[in-house]
């Protein structure tokens, strides 16, 4: 799979990132990203639910063949609410048929299992996606927040193209075992929340009021006023690094990710054209990899306050 150096995370245009912009603005933003060379667009059934896939489908319909769309199944959505996980084969098939309609397409370039379902063997999930690929409805298979053991089992049934998990200067756990396994197996990696849900861009602080009706940060331990204040030294390190190089903290955070491996494709989310331009510009900056690694070493020594997820959400990600 070949894609642009950065993809676009579309979730925040409808879900979990505060006030929802006018639909026309988001459609124009997605199309602007295409014009600027982005070829990977990330959504999921659960974003909304459903409405984010509809938005992405409408925005990309005129340029569908030029881009790749990734979406995800795995949550049990009942009456518009999440009721646990569901990766039973018949449910995956039903979700994919609905996603295809919402995305206004007859194939999904990359289909992820969003969270591993402990009640369904991963081999059955991989087998179902394999069948969907043979039927032409899906092109590639991905996993999200899966353990190395699960990745290996799935990969044995059908090649996994990429794994998508949280990864940023404030969440480096994938380095422990997932990234080495992916390198061994030749699987790509898509860091989600590469700006730590906006924190690494330096615009959030203890005064920030999250729009709780549609912003999951309002309930996450890392975004309490106290944690936002205590974690400031991390942002300060990015500001210091960027100031002499003409980079914003968001750009430094993304440049660090790009410097890790050539097969790592971050998908920062944004609702604003100015932020899109700022984020995409990183791919053309020439920053010595050693300098970025040194920055990573410095930041790794700074204690991080507040868990990234609540206990319930943490249970859904494999260790
Ligand atoms: N697989 C999974 O379980 C999973 C989980 C979460 C997310 N994702 C995917 O990953 C994508 C990105 O994740 P995310 O939204 O959680 O986190 P993120 O990309 O780390 O951060 C997005 C936030 O950063 C802000 N931002 C972006 N660029 C900025 C800039 N240059 N300057 C200042 N602020 C900036 C955005 O606000 P503005 O709108 O104001 O720019 C937005 O609130 C999602 O869209 C989704 O596709 C996947």
TrEMBL record:
This is Aldo/keto reductase. It comes from the Bacteria. The keyword Ribosomal protein does not apply. The keyword Hydrolase does not apply. Keywords: Oxidoreductase. One of its GO terms (molecular function) is oxidoreductase activity. GO terms for cellular component: cytoplasm. The lineage of its organism: Bacteria, Pseudomonadati, Bacteroidota, Cytophagia, Cytophagales. Residues 6-296 form the NADP-dependent oxidoreductase domain.
């Amino acid at each position: 799979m070949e894609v642009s150096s950065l993809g676009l995370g579309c979730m925040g245009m409808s879900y979990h990132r505060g006030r929802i912009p006018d639909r026309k603005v988001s459609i124009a933003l997605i199309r602007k990203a295409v014009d600027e060379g982005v070829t990977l667009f990330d959504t999921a059934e659960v974003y909304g639910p459903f409405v984010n896939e509809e938005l992405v489908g409408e925005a990309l319909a005129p340029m569908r063949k030029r881009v790749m769309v990734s979406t995800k199944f795995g949550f049990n959505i009942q009456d518009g609410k999440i009721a646990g996980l569901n990766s039973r084969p018949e449910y995956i098939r039903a979700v994919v048929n609905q996603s295809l309609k919402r995305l206004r397409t007859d194939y999904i370039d990359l289909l992820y299992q969003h969270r591993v379902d402990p009640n369904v063997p991963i081999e059955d999930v991989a087998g179902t996606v394999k069948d969907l690929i043979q039927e032409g409805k899906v092109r590639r298979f991905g996993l999200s927040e899966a353990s190395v053991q699960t990745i290996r089992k799935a990969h044995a049934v059908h090649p996994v193209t990429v794994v998508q998990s949280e990864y940023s200067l404030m969440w480096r756990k994938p380095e422990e075992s997932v990234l080495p396994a992916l390198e061994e197996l030749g699987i790509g990696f898509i860091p989600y929340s590469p700006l730590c849900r906006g924190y690494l861009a330096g615009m959030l602080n203890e005064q920030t009021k999250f729009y709780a009706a549609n912003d999951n940060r309002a309930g996450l331990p890392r975004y309490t006023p106290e944690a936002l204040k205590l974690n400031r030294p991390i942002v300060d390190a990015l500001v210091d690094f960027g100031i002499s190089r003409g980079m914003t903290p968001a750009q430094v955070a993304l440049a660090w990710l790009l410097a890790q491996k050539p097969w790592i494709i971050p998908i920062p989310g944004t609702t604003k054209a100015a932020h899109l331009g700022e984020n995409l510009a990183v791919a053309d900056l020439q920053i010595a990899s050693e300098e970025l690694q040194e920055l990573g070493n410095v930041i790794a020594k700074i204690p991080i306050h507040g868990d990234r997820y609540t206990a319930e959400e943490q249970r859904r990600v494999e260790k």
